[in-house]
Amino acid sequence: MFISNAFAQAAPAAAPAGDMASSLMSMLPLLLMFVVLYFIMIRPQMKKQKEHRAMIDALAKGDEVVTAGGMLGKVASLSDSHIGLQIANGVEVQMQRSAVVQVLPKGTIK
């Protein structure tokens, strides 16, 4: 009375080539979104990392730098992975090279 009868349906036939093309067209927006994200987010980030790596590799003794923690100082010594940063007369701290975020123009720190 309240429940209607359920009838079995025949199995669908094999998918023709038109269905395959429509499934590829349904994936097109997803691929398009990935391409847009690559050019808007991924590629600029890779470029920024490359520029940062070049800046760190070009550090020299006497450069004035800003660290990620906001410390300003002069590069007093260099090693492969660390720098000695002179933050005041007679005060030198050891930091990782990757902590340097900006090289300042000469004469900025007095």
Q: Spans of 5+ residues with little confidence (pLDDT < 50)? A: none
Average residue pLDDT: 90
Span of the ends, CA to CA: 93 Å
Strand proportion, as a percent range, falls in 25-35%
Radius of gyration: 30 Å
Spatially, the strands of the biggest sheet line up as 4-3-2-1-5
Largest pleated sheet = 5 strands, antiparallel
Report the total helices: 1
DSSP summary, beta strand count: 5
In sequence order, what are the helices and strands, one letter per element? Answer: HEEEEE
Helix content: 25-40%
* Secondary-structure class: alpha+beta
What is the global morphology? rod-shaped
Account of the 3D structure:
The protein is an alpha+beta fold and 110 residues long. Helix content is 37%, strand content 26%. A five-stranded antiparallel β-sheet has the order 4-3-2-1-5, covered by helices on one side. A hairpin with a 2-residue loop joins β3 and β4. The radius of gyration is 30 Å and the shape is rod-shaped.
